[in-house]
Amino acid sequence: MPTDKQPQSSANGLKLNSAIRFIELFHSPITAWVVLGLSLAITVVAYIITSSAVKERAQDRFEYQTIRTENAIKERLYLYEQVLWGGVGLFNASTEVTRADYANYVKALQLDTKWPGVQGIGYSIPIEASQLEAHIEGIRAQGFPDYTVKPTEPREEYSAIIYLEPFDWRNQRAFGYDMWSNPMRREAMARARDNAEAATSGIITLVQETDNNVQRGFLTYVPVYSTRAIPPTVEERRAAFIGWVYAPFRAGNLMQGILGADDDQIHLNIYDGKIKQPESLLYSSESAPPESNIPDLTKDVTITLQGREWTLYFHAVPNYYELVDNGHQPVFIAVGGVAVNLLLFYVIYALYFLNKRAESVTKDWRMIIEQAPNALIITNETGEIVVTNAQADTLFGYAPNELLGQKIEVLVPHSIRTAHPELRESFVAAPKARSMGAGRDLTAQRKDGSEVPVEIGLSPLNTPQGRLVVASIVDISERKQAQHTLEKIIEQAPNALIMTDDKGTITLTNTQADHLFGYRRGELTGQKIDILVPEANRAGHPAHRDAFFKAPKSRLMGAGRDLAGRAKDGSEVPVEIGLNPLTTPLGNFVVASIVDIKERLRAQKMLEHTNRQLQQKNHEMEQFIYTVSHDLKSPLVTIGGFAKMLSTGLANTATDKQKHQLQRIQANVDHMETLLSDLLQLSRLIRQGVDKTEVDLEALLGSLINTLEGPIEAVNAKVEICKPLAIIQGNERLISQCVQNLLSNAIQYKDEQRPLTITISTSEQAESVSLIIKDTAMGIDAKYHEQIFRIFERLDIGEGTGVGLAIVKTVMEKHSGQVILESELGKGSAFTLVFPKQKNKD
């Protein structure tokens, strides 16, 4: 029995191997390309065959339609000829055909309904020149007083249309018309008369035409002889000839009546004669002129109708092949065939790639696991480890594959190992991706028994072999060390530091923070930050905290407001708080740096008290200056008066020494009066406010120069004003006083070694306007630059009071501006008065 089964098993194996090789061969790229090539070839052949069949059907249909149209034109014009011969029969059967007889005959034909395309049936007679007047009078006597033969130019032979029915407004335009006068008409009329047969004219424009919808036309004539029978010779025919029964045709209307809307896929052009040229085009079914390019399907047919040759030119529309029955069939076959071919190619190729992917999927996912940055461990539902990567083996100190087949609990610390199976089973029962041990510090056990802090993410994985659990494990030893370092930094910070999460829970404090608010070490951790907010502000604090985390950035808390923190005993501590956002893998946090400002506030209050005392002293000094300058002015006036009286009384008797002494008294009195005047002015400046307007500097400087004209000319000084000058917001009177003091100082301290030039200009900055007064006077040594702006301080030279520049400084301070001095001894000075711009008020 075994010997019988072995060959059969071997045969089955060979069959299986053959089947596998066949499947591999069928699913190979070569097979896909071969199948694609063959199927495309079949599609091409099918396309060619169907295209040929469609073309053949189209050509047959084109040939049938052209023959049908040709026959329709011949038959219709033959019938119209018979109608005309019927008119001849009317004349032959009657002794006299009156106008009424002729009208009744034509009316009985029902041209509008049974003979579409014919404009009417007429009768024209030849007229000799000698009979013309009598003919006209005879017709007029029949009730047509305006009748005449047209055209009216004299000629040897005439003809006239005397009957034309239906006698409507269009045909009345031809009444009396001499068709013999037109060469094209005359040729057909003569041919009909001489040959005793119907004759059709060439292309003419009917006299019935108006300016609208003008069509080309033609006429068909049949002769009427007085002998009733047709004479045998031309001479006899001319002698017996009495008129023509004829029909005028508008080509467009005629062909519409013949062809109708039979086939708009084949166009027809009718040419008069054998030459196809625009001048000989009688009719075209196309709305636009024929295209110059030659269509795929065309046909020329020459027919002879009533002795006139016409060329019928048929041509199909460009897409005629597509318009016939199943015309798109080749395209459908080509597109459908290519689509099926590509689909078949795609299926075979896709099967090849699926096979290859199925072969490499194990290698791929193994490679992915190995290249993952974290340690990965995969277990089955019973907790048995089925896959680990190199990172996991290294993290836990195991050799490659050493963990495979062991329970996951081998990596769980002994302290919690017994409880772990129950936790694992609960996860398998309700699997979902989540972090393991959220909110707890996790550790895992290495092979050597040591523990490592970790973070673990769990993800279920469903496979045909069952449900697996993928554990992604991150070694957070470095993070823990960094956290410990951060705690040390916070602890060693000079200020109180408190760190909270985005929910307002305190996660970390330093000793300074605990001491500031009166808590024991670690007592604040885990509590809400609101516990440190005064009760008056506590309700609104969560909204402020949420707003900060929506747009986190380093900033001061409660800028512009007095902040206080609430200590454990309920007291409030004045503080300044700086907020700094901190983003970590654990979430978003904020670090609050808190400074106790009790001492600063105490020092600030002492400084404010000192400033108030200084302001009081300044006020008392201002009052003293005012009182002294005011009270001393009256005695000085008296002394000055007595000095002048003495000078006058002793003018002739006083000695030179006495006169010099009196002059000294008078000079000192004048100097003291000037000093007291300046002091009064300075006192008023200090006490009064300043009203500001726009100051026109050009007008102000012009007035000052006129005022100082005498002193300026006395020292031969030159004043230059650099225009245009900017507009300054200020008090015009005080600015004038400043400028006058500076000009007077330049004149008073003129350098005798060079001429004095004073230049006045302005410059404009973003937030200020500067008035610059520059001179070439003596200049001021740099060591006196600050001193000269103090009251009673002046240089040793000159006779100033030492108050003028103090007034300038006070005026600029009143304008919230400043005066800047640039000067060097022997090179002149430049005083810059800086005025702030007036800010717009919203």
UniProtKB/TrEMBL annotation:
Record domain Histidine kinase: where: 627-839
Subcellular compartments: Membrane
Residue span, CHASE domain: 93-313
Reactions that this protein is recorded to catalyse: ATP + protein L-histidine = ADP + protein N-phospho-L-histidine
SMART domains according to UniProt: CHASE, HATPase_c, HisKA, PAS
Transmembrane intervals: 30-49, 331-354
GO MF, one example: phosphorelay sensor kinase activity
One CC-aspect GO term: membrane
Domain (PAS): residue spans on this chain: 361-430, 482-535
SUPFAM superfamilies per the UniProt record, alphabetical: ATPase domain of HSP90 chaperone/DNA topoisomerase II/histidine kinase, Homodimeric domain of signal transducing histidine kinase, PYP-like sensor domain (PAS domain)
Positions of the PAC domain: 438-488
Enzyme class, spelled out: transferase
Main location: membrane
Alphabetized CDD domains for the sequence: HisKA, PAS
Keywords: Kinase, Membrane, Phosphoprotein, Transferase, Transmembrane, Transmembrane helix
BP terms from Gene Ontology: osmosensory signaling via phosphorelay pathway; regulation of DNA-templated transcription
EC number: 2.7.13.3
Keyword Disulfide bond: no
Record carries keyword Kinase: yes
The name this protein goes by in its record: histidine kinase
Species classification: Bacteria, Pseudomonadati, Pseudomonadota, Gammaproteobacteria, Cellvibrionales
